[in-house]
Design goal:
Length: 189
Amino acid sequence: MSKIVLFASGSGTNVENIVRYFQSHSEVEITFVFTNKKEARVLDRCKELEVSAAYLSKEALKSTAFLDMLQQLNPDLIVLAGYLLKIPQPWIAAFQERIINIHPALLPKFGGKGMYGAHVHEAVIAAGEKESGITIHYVNEHYDEGAIIAQYAVEVSPQDTPSSLAEKIHGLEHAYYPKVIEKLLTHAD
């Protein structure tokens, strides 16, 4: 059985989508969901979905005790689904090529520190880009610079606002993130 640990910082729509996708897969277990925000909606979603979840402070997440616990969970994949903190170097070393992230733009454009959510969509529109999309990538020690696993694009129309572009991007995230996770877990081509 493959095990996944998820990390999120916000409402958890991607977490919910991933959990629902894998509920019908008896060979994949969502072991735990962690968040760095006490009031994150993802905690309520996990309760409704009957998935174990917990809030951990930034300090707790960076601790050796947490890394030890994460290693005991022994996930096949650590999936960042709207998680906004930089992943500590010891995690990257311990889970080489097993931590993935989804970014709401076509990297290497519009990535890096501070480039998340509406900030990305505003920058894409301000730059006059004709397309945007999502990038699923491995996590390394730099924001949004890990090896790219997959990218999917949508057209940016002249009428798009950051909000309408965000809706298009969420559609891509929900359609493709679980499938890419599944492919990585099954090592399919």
